[in-house]
Amino acid sequence: MADRRRWIVLGLVFVAIVLNYVDRQILALLKPTLQAEFDWSDRDYSHMASAFQFAAAVAFLGTGWFIDKIGLRWGFAIGVGVWSLAGMAHAFATTVSGFVASRAVLGAAESIGTPAAVKTAATYFGGKDRSVALGLVGIAPNIGAILTPLLIPVMALMFGWKATFLIAGGLGLVWVVAWLMMRIPPQPNAARDAAAPKIAWSSLLKDRRQWAVILGKALTDQVWWFLLFFMPDMFHRTFGLSQGTLGLPVAFVYFMAALGGLSGGFLPARLLRRGWSVNAARKTSMLIYALLIVPIPVLVGVDSAWVAAAILGLGLFAHQGFSTNLFGLTTDIFPARIVGSAIGIGAFAGNLSGMAMIEFAGWSLDNGHGYLPMFLICSLTYLAALAAIQLILPRVVAIDEDADDGTAAPVIAH
Protein backbone atom coordinates (compact mmCIF):
# COMPACT_ATOMS: atom_id res chain seq x y z
CA MET A 1 0.00 0.00 0.00
CA ALA A 2 2.80 2.43 0.90
CA ASP A 3 4.49 1.66 -2.41
CA ARG A 4 1.28 2.48 -4.28
CA ARG A 5 0.75 5.67 -2.29
CA ARG A 6 4.18 7.02 -3.14
CA TRP A 7 3.25 6.89 -6.83
CA ILE A 8 -0.04 8.66 -6.08
CA VAL A 9 1.91 11.35 -4.23
CA LEU A 10 4.19 11.65 -7.26
CA GLY A 11 1.10 11.96 -9.46
CA LEU A 12 -0.25 14.84 -7.40
CA VAL A 13 3.13 16.56 -7.52
CA PHE A 14 3.05 16.07 -11.29
CA VAL A 15 -0.32 17.81 -11.53
CA ALA A 16 0.90 20.70 -9.35
CA ILE A 17 3.90 21.30 -11.60
CA VAL A 18 1.63 21.21 -14.66
CA LEU A 19 -0.53 23.94 -13.08
CA ASN A 20 2.63 25.81 -12.12
CA TYR A 21 3.64 26.10 -15.75
CA VAL A 22 0.13 26.90 -16.93
CA ASP A 23 0.01 29.90 -14.59
CA ARG A 24 3.42 31.23 -15.53
CA GLN A 25 2.93 30.83 -19.31
CA ILE A 26 -0.44 32.54 -19.66
CA LEU A 27 1.07 36.02 -19.85
CA ALA A 28 3.43 35.03 -22.68
CA LEU A 29 0.56 33.65 -24.74
CA LEU A 30 -1.66 36.67 -24.14
CA LYS A 31 1.18 39.14 -24.86
CA PRO A 32 -0.15 40.24 -28.30
CA THR A 33 -3.61 40.94 -26.85
CA LEU A 34 -2.42 42.62 -23.66
CA GLN A 35 0.31 44.55 -25.46
CA ALA A 36 -2.31 46.04 -27.79
CA GLU A 37 -4.75 46.76 -24.95
CA PHE A 38 -2.25 48.34 -22.55
CA ASP A 39 0.30 49.66 -25.10
CA TRP A 40 3.31 47.81 -23.64
CA SER A 41 6.79 48.01 -25.16
CA ASP A 42 9.08 44.98 -25.37
CA ARG A 43 11.01 46.42 -22.43
CA ASP A 44 7.79 46.67 -20.37
CA TYR A 45 7.13 43.01 -21.04
CA SER A 46 10.73 42.11 -20.20
CA HIS A 47 10.38 43.92 -16.88
CA MET A 48 7.27 41.88 -16.05
CA ALA A 49 9.06 38.66 -16.88
CA SER A 50 12.12 39.83 -14.93
CA ALA A 51 9.95 40.60 -11.89
CA PHE A 52 8.83 36.97 -11.96
CA GLN A 53 12.42 35.77 -12.32
CA PHE A 54 13.87 38.00 -9.61
CA ALA A 55 11.13 37.19 -7.09
CA ALA A 56 11.50 33.47 -7.81
CA ALA A 57 15.29 33.70 -7.50
CA VAL A 58 15.12 35.41 -4.10
CA ALA A 59 12.41 33.02 -2.93
CA PHE A 60 14.51 30.01 -3.95
CA LEU A 61 16.97 31.06 -1.23
CA GLY A 62 14.26 30.17 1.26
CA THR A 63 11.86 27.71 -0.38
CA GLY A 64 14.37 24.86 -0.41
CA TRP A 65 14.92 25.35 3.31
CA PHE A 66 11.16 25.87 3.80
CA ILE A 67 10.22 22.57 2.18
CA ASP A 68 12.97 20.76 4.13
CA LYS A 69 11.79 22.37 7.39
CA ILE A 70 7.98 22.35 7.06
CA GLY A 71 7.74 19.14 5.06
CA LEU A 72 6.07 18.26 1.79
CA ARG A 73 2.47 18.17 3.01
CA TRP A 74 2.01 21.70 4.36
CA GLY A 75 4.93 23.33 2.62
CA PHE A 76 3.69 22.42 -0.85
CA ALA A 77 0.04 23.21 0.01
CA ILE A 78 0.97 26.74 1.13
CA GLY A 79 3.07 27.34 -1.97
CA VAL A 80 0.38 26.18 -4.42
CA GLY A 81 -2.32 28.15 -2.59
CA VAL A 82 -0.37 31.40 -2.71
CA TRP A 83 0.66 31.07 -6.35
CA SER A 84 -2.92 30.25 -7.37
CA LEU A 85 -4.22 33.42 -5.70
CA ALA A 86 -1.42 35.45 -7.31
CA GLY A 87 -2.34 34.05 -10.71
CA MET A 88 -5.96 35.07 -10.20
CA ALA A 89 -4.83 38.58 -9.22
CA HIS A 90 -3.63 39.17 -12.81
CA ALA A 91 -7.29 39.43 -13.83
CA PHE A 92 -7.62 42.62 -11.78
CA ALA A 93 -4.40 44.33 -12.93
CA THR A 94 -4.76 47.33 -15.24
CA THR A 95 -1.26 48.86 -15.22
CA VAL A 96 2.27 47.67 -15.85
CA SER A 97 3.03 48.01 -12.14
CA GLY A 98 -0.04 45.90 -11.32
CA PHE A 99 1.11 43.11 -13.60
CA VAL A 100 4.66 43.40 -12.25
CA ALA A 101 3.39 43.01 -8.66
CA SER A 102 1.24 40.00 -9.58
CA ARG A 103 4.12 38.39 -11.45
CA ALA A 104 6.46 38.95 -8.52
CA VAL A 105 4.18 37.20 -6.03
CA LEU A 106 3.50 34.42 -8.54
CA GLY A 107 7.22 33.90 -9.09
CA ALA A 108 8.02 33.84 -5.38
CA ALA A 109 5.32 31.27 -4.61
CA GLU A 110 5.95 29.08 -7.64
CA SER A 111 9.57 28.63 -6.59
CA ILE A 112 8.32 25.99 -4.14
CA GLY A 113 7.58 23.63 -7.05
CA THR A 114 11.09 22.58 -8.03
CA PRO A 115 12.51 21.73 -4.58
CA ALA A 116 9.24 20.02 -3.61
CA ALA A 117 9.24 17.85 -6.75
CA VAL A 118 12.90 16.88 -6.46
CA LYS A 119 12.55 16.24 -2.72
CA THR A 120 9.59 13.94 -3.40
CA ALA A 121 11.72 11.85 -5.77
CA ALA A 122 14.68 11.87 -3.38
CA THR A 123 12.55 10.98 -0.34
CA TYR A 124 10.33 8.21 -1.66
CA PHE A 125 12.38 6.70 -4.48
CA GLY A 126 15.85 5.24 -4.62
CA GLY A 127 18.22 3.83 -7.20
CA LYS A 128 16.80 3.32 -10.68
CA ASP A 129 13.25 4.22 -9.55
CA ARG A 130 14.50 7.67 -8.58
CA SER A 131 15.73 8.36 -12.11
CA VAL A 132 12.36 7.26 -13.49
CA ALA A 133 10.51 9.42 -10.93
CA LEU A 134 12.66 12.43 -11.83
CA GLY A 135 12.03 11.79 -15.51
CA LEU A 136 8.26 11.68 -14.97
CA VAL A 137 8.28 14.85 -12.86
CA GLY A 138 10.59 16.41 -15.42
CA ILE A 139 7.96 16.19 -18.16
CA ALA A 140 5.31 17.92 -16.02
CA PRO A 141 6.44 21.44 -17.00
CA ASN A 142 6.21 20.43 -20.62
CA ILE A 143 2.73 18.98 -20.24
CA GLY A 144 1.71 22.31 -18.74
CA ALA A 145 3.49 24.13 -21.55
CA ILE A 146 1.73 21.93 -24.14
CA LEU A 147 -1.75 22.36 -22.70
CA THR A 148 -1.44 26.11 -22.14
CA PRO A 149 -1.02 27.20 -25.80
CA LEU A 150 -3.74 24.77 -26.86
CA LEU A 151 -6.30 25.91 -24.28
CA ILE A 152 -5.52 29.48 -23.20
CA PRO A 153 -5.89 31.26 -26.58
CA VAL A 154 -9.21 29.51 -27.15
CA MET A 155 -10.41 30.35 -23.64
CA ALA A 156 -9.32 33.98 -24.07
CA LEU A 157 -11.26 34.25 -27.32
CA MET A 158 -14.35 32.62 -25.78
CA PHE A 159 -14.41 34.14 -22.28
CA GLY A 160 -11.89 36.99 -22.31
CA TRP A 161 -8.33 37.19 -21.01
CA LYS A 162 -9.38 37.84 -17.40
CA ALA A 163 -11.26 34.55 -17.20
CA THR A 164 -8.16 32.58 -18.19
CA PHE A 165 -6.28 33.79 -15.13
CA LEU A 166 -9.24 33.13 -12.82
CA ILE A 167 -9.87 29.60 -14.10
CA ALA A 168 -6.21 28.56 -13.94
CA GLY A 169 -5.83 29.90 -10.41
CA GLY A 170 -9.04 28.23 -9.31
CA LEU A 171 -7.73 24.84 -10.44
CA GLY A 172 -4.73 25.35 -8.18
CA LEU A 173 -7.00 25.90 -5.17
CA VAL A 174 -8.85 22.67 -6.01
CA TRP A 175 -5.47 20.89 -6.05
CA VAL A 176 -4.68 22.19 -2.55
CA VAL A 177 -7.84 20.56 -1.20
CA ALA A 178 -7.01 17.23 -2.92
CA TRP A 179 -3.41 17.34 -1.65
CA LEU A 180 -4.41 17.94 1.98
CA MET A 181 -6.96 15.13 1.77
CA MET A 182 -4.29 12.70 0.54
CA ARG A 183 -2.71 10.52 3.21
CA ILE A 184 0.99 10.87 2.47
CA PRO A 185 3.08 7.79 3.38
CA PRO A 186 5.69 8.13 6.12
CA GLN A 187 9.05 9.36 4.91
CA PRO A 188 11.79 6.70 4.99
CA ASN A 189 14.51 7.46 7.54
CA ALA A 190 12.49 10.43 8.84
CA ALA A 191 13.58 9.87 12.45
CA ARG A 192 17.24 9.67 11.47
CA ASP A 193 16.99 12.77 9.33
CA ALA A 194 15.30 14.72 12.11
CA ALA A 195 18.07 13.79 14.54
CA ALA A 196 20.88 14.52 12.10
CA PRO A 197 22.80 17.79 12.47
CA LYS A 198 21.40 20.59 10.32
CA ILE A 199 23.49 21.78 7.41
CA ALA A 200 24.05 25.53 7.28
CA TRP A 201 23.89 27.19 3.90
CA SER A 202 27.37 28.53 4.51
CA SER A 203 28.52 24.91 4.58
CA LEU A 204 26.74 24.16 1.31
CA LEU A 205 28.33 27.17 -0.35
CA LYS A 206 31.75 25.89 0.71
CA ASP A 207 30.96 22.48 -0.80
CA ARG A 208 32.07 22.20 -4.40
CA ARG A 209 29.25 19.80 -5.16
CA GLN A 210 26.92 22.73 -4.60
CA TRP A 211 28.90 24.87 -7.04
CA ALA A 212 28.53 22.21 -9.71
CA VAL A 213 24.76 22.52 -9.31
CA ILE A 214 24.92 26.34 -9.21
CA LEU A 215 26.93 26.63 -12.42
CA GLY A 216 24.93 23.93 -14.17
CA LYS A 217 21.65 25.71 -13.39
CA ALA A 218 22.94 29.22 -14.10
CA LEU A 219 24.31 28.30 -17.51
CA THR A 220 21.31 26.32 -18.73
CA ASP A 221 18.16 27.68 -17.06
CA GLN A 222 18.56 30.99 -18.90
CA VAL A 223 17.68 29.17 -22.12
CA TRP A 224 14.46 27.72 -20.72
CA TRP A 225 13.27 31.04 -19.31
CA PHE A 226 14.11 32.98 -22.45
CA LEU A 227 12.17 30.56 -24.66
CA LEU A 228 9.28 30.25 -22.22
CA PHE A 229 8.67 34.00 -22.19
CA PHE A 230 9.61 34.89 -25.76
CA MET A 231 8.76 31.90 -27.96
CA PRO A 232 5.09 32.84 -28.53
CA ASP A 233 6.25 36.37 -29.38
CA MET A 234 8.80 34.97 -31.83
CA PHE A 235 6.13 33.03 -33.72
CA HIS A 236 3.91 36.11 -33.75
CA ARG A 237 6.68 38.58 -34.70
CA THR A 238 8.68 36.43 -37.15
CA PHE A 239 6.00 34.36 -38.85
CA GLY A 240 2.95 36.58 -38.40
CA LEU A 241 0.94 34.00 -36.44
CA SER A 242 -2.04 35.38 -34.57
CA GLN A 243 -2.87 34.56 -30.97
CA GLY A 244 -5.39 32.00 -32.21
CA THR A 245 -2.92 30.19 -34.49
CA LEU A 246 0.40 30.23 -32.63
CA GLY A 247 -0.80 27.64 -30.10
CA LEU A 248 -0.15 24.55 -32.23
CA PRO A 249 3.55 25.14 -33.07
CA VAL A 250 4.24 26.26 -29.48
CA ALA A 251 2.50 23.15 -28.16
CA PHE A 252 4.56 20.97 -30.52
CA VAL A 253 7.79 22.50 -29.19
CA TYR A 254 6.81 21.66 -25.63
CA PHE A 255 5.67 18.19 -26.65
CA MET A 256 9.24 17.62 -27.83
CA ALA A 257 10.48 19.07 -24.55
CA ALA A 258 8.30 16.58 -22.66
CA LEU A 259 9.88 13.71 -24.58
CA GLY A 260 13.29 15.12 -23.67
CA GLY A 261 12.43 15.18 -19.99
CA LEU A 262 11.15 11.62 -20.14
CA SER A 263 14.25 10.41 -21.98
CA GLY A 264 16.41 12.26 -19.46
CA GLY A 265 15.14 9.92 -16.77
CA PHE A 266 15.14 6.68 -18.73
CA LEU A 267 18.48 7.07 -20.56
CA PRO A 268 20.75 7.11 -17.47
CA ALA A 269 18.60 4.42 -15.83
CA ARG A 270 19.16 2.19 -18.87
CA LEU A 271 22.90 2.87 -18.82
CA LEU A 272 23.04 2.04 -15.10
CA ARG A 273 21.23 -1.25 -15.73
CA ARG A 274 23.89 -2.08 -18.32
CA GLY A 275 26.58 -1.69 -15.69
CA TRP A 276 27.71 1.88 -16.31
CA SER A 277 28.91 3.92 -13.34
CA VAL A 278 26.83 6.83 -12.06
CA ASN A 279 29.57 9.16 -13.29
CA ALA A 280 29.56 7.76 -16.82
CA ALA A 281 25.77 7.43 -17.09
CA ARG A 282 25.05 11.00 -15.97
CA LYS A 283 27.80 12.75 -17.92
CA THR A 284 27.35 10.77 -21.13
CA SER A 285 23.64 11.57 -21.07
CA MET A 286 24.36 15.25 -20.47
CA LEU A 287 26.88 15.35 -23.33
CA ILE A 288 24.34 13.90 -25.77
CA TYR A 289 21.79 16.55 -24.84
CA ALA A 290 24.37 19.35 -24.92
CA LEU A 291 25.24 18.47 -28.51
CA LEU A 292 21.60 18.32 -29.65
CA ILE A 293 20.98 22.02 -28.96
CA VAL A 294 24.06 23.30 -30.84
CA PRO A 295 22.20 23.84 -34.20
CA ILE A 296 19.63 26.27 -32.76
CA PRO A 297 21.12 29.46 -34.35
CA VAL A 298 20.01 28.25 -37.81
CA LEU A 299 16.55 29.49 -36.78
CA VAL A 300 17.41 32.96 -38.06
CA GLY A 301 17.38 31.71 -41.66
CA VAL A 302 14.15 29.71 -41.44
CA ASP A 303 11.00 30.97 -43.18
CA SER A 304 8.57 28.26 -42.05
CA ALA A 305 6.93 28.32 -38.62
CA TRP A 306 6.83 24.54 -38.50
CA VAL A 307 10.50 24.12 -39.42
CA ALA A 308 11.27 26.62 -36.66
CA ALA A 309 9.07 24.59 -34.29
CA ALA A 310 11.04 21.43 -35.15
CA ILE A 311 14.38 23.13 -34.43
CA LEU A 312 13.10 24.70 -31.21
CA GLY A 313 11.54 21.37 -30.26
CA LEU A 314 14.89 19.63 -30.58
CA GLY A 315 16.47 22.40 -28.52
CA LEU A 316 13.98 22.07 -25.68
CA PHE A 317 14.14 18.26 -25.93
CA ALA A 318 17.85 18.70 -25.21
CA HIS A 319 17.28 21.22 -22.42
CA GLN A 320 14.84 19.02 -20.54
CA GLY A 321 17.02 15.93 -20.93
CA PHE A 322 20.03 17.83 -19.62
CA SER A 323 18.02 19.43 -16.79
CA THR A 324 16.58 16.10 -15.64
CA ASN A 325 20.09 14.69 -15.39
CA LEU A 326 21.28 17.76 -13.49
CA PHE A 327 18.49 17.18 -10.97
CA GLY A 328 19.44 13.51 -10.89
CA LEU A 329 23.07 14.42 -10.28
CA THR A 330 21.97 16.55 -7.32
CA THR A 331 20.06 13.64 -5.77
CA ASP A 332 23.06 11.39 -6.44
CA ILE A 333 25.50 13.56 -4.49
CA PHE A 334 23.34 15.04 -1.69
CA PRO A 335 21.31 13.20 0.99
CA ALA A 336 17.53 13.53 0.63
CA ARG A 337 17.15 15.63 3.80
CA ILE A 338 19.06 18.57 2.25
CA VAL A 339 18.40 18.08 -1.44
CA GLY A 340 15.64 20.72 -1.34
CA SER A 341 18.14 23.30 -0.10
CA ALA A 342 20.74 22.25 -2.66
CA ILE A 343 18.23 22.54 -5.50
CA GLY A 344 16.92 25.82 -4.12
CA ILE A 345 20.37 27.42 -4.19
CA GLY A 346 20.93 26.17 -7.73
CA ALA A 347 17.52 27.41 -8.85
CA PHE A 348 18.33 30.84 -7.37
CA ALA A 349 21.30 31.04 -9.72
CA GLY A 350 19.23 29.75 -12.64
CA ASN A 351 16.50 32.34 -12.14
CA LEU A 352 19.01 35.19 -11.92
CA SER A 353 20.63 34.09 -15.18
CA GLY A 354 17.14 33.76 -16.70
CA MET A 355 16.32 37.32 -15.64
CA ALA A 356 19.52 38.60 -17.25
CA MET A 357 18.73 36.72 -20.47
CA ILE A 358 15.17 38.09 -20.57
CA GLU A 359 16.37 41.67 -20.08
CA PHE A 360 19.02 41.12 -22.76
CA ALA A 361 16.33 39.81 -25.12
CA GLY A 362 14.16 42.88 -24.56
CA TRP A 363 17.14 45.16 -25.25
CA SER A 364 18.13 43.17 -28.36
CA LEU A 365 14.63 43.30 -29.84
CA ASP A 366 14.07 46.98 -29.06
CA ASN A 367 17.42 47.86 -30.67
CA GLY A 368 16.91 45.86 -33.86
CA HIS A 369 19.35 43.01 -33.21
CA GLY A 370 16.66 40.33 -33.32
CA TYR A 371 16.92 36.87 -31.79
CA LEU A 372 20.34 35.78 -33.11
CA PRO A 373 22.40 36.89 -30.06
CA MET A 374 20.20 34.82 -27.74
CA PHE A 375 20.27 31.79 -30.05
CA LEU A 376 24.09 31.86 -30.10
CA ILE A 377 24.13 31.80 -26.30
CA CYS A 378 21.64 28.90 -26.30
CA SER A 379 23.82 26.81 -28.61
CA LEU A 380 26.97 26.88 -26.48
CA THR A 381 25.88 27.19 -22.89
CA TYR A 382 25.15 23.47 -22.29
CA LEU A 383 28.62 22.39 -23.34
CA ALA A 384 29.99 25.11 -21.04
CA ALA A 385 27.84 23.78 -18.18
CA LEU A 386 29.04 20.21 -18.67
CA ALA A 387 32.65 21.40 -18.81
CA ALA A 388 32.17 23.25 -15.52
CA ILE A 389 30.62 20.16 -13.88
CA GLN A 390 33.48 17.99 -15.12
CA LEU A 391 36.08 20.40 -13.71
CA ILE A 392 34.38 20.57 -10.32
CA LEU A 393 33.33 16.91 -10.09
CA PRO A 394 35.86 14.86 -12.10
CA ARG A 395 34.31 11.60 -10.90
CA VAL A 396 30.94 11.33 -9.21
CA VAL A 397 30.05 8.53 -6.83
CA ALA A 398 26.46 8.39 -5.57
CA ILE A 399 26.08 9.02 -1.87
CA ASP A 400 25.10 6.07 0.31
CA GLU A 401 22.00 7.29 2.16
CA ASP A 402 22.12 4.41 4.60
CA ALA A 403 25.68 5.27 5.54
CA ASP A 404 25.05 9.01 5.79
CA ASP A 405 26.20 10.21 9.18
CA GLY A 406 24.51 13.58 8.97
CA THR A 407 27.42 15.48 7.54
CA ALA A 408 27.87 16.88 4.08
CA ALA A 409 31.16 15.15 3.44
CA PRO A 410 32.26 15.11 -0.20
CA VAL A 411 31.58 11.97 -2.17
CA ILE A 412 33.92 12.83 -5.02
CA ALA A 413 36.56 10.24 -5.82
CA HIS A 414 39.85 11.54 -7.16
Automatic annotation (TrEMBL):
- Identify the residues that the record assigns to the Major facilitator superfamily (MFS) profile domain, covering every copy: 9-397
Per the record, the domain of life is Bacteria
Membrane-spanning parts: 48-67, 74-93, 132-157, 163-182, 251-269, 289-318, 338-358, 370-393
Membrane protein topology class? Multi-pass membrane protein
Q: Which PROSITE patterns match?
A: MFS
Chief subcellular location equals membrane
Keywords of the record, alphabetical order, are:
Membrane, Transmembrane, Transmembrane helix
- Compartmental location: Membrane
Protein name (Swiss-Prot/TrEMBL): MFS transporter
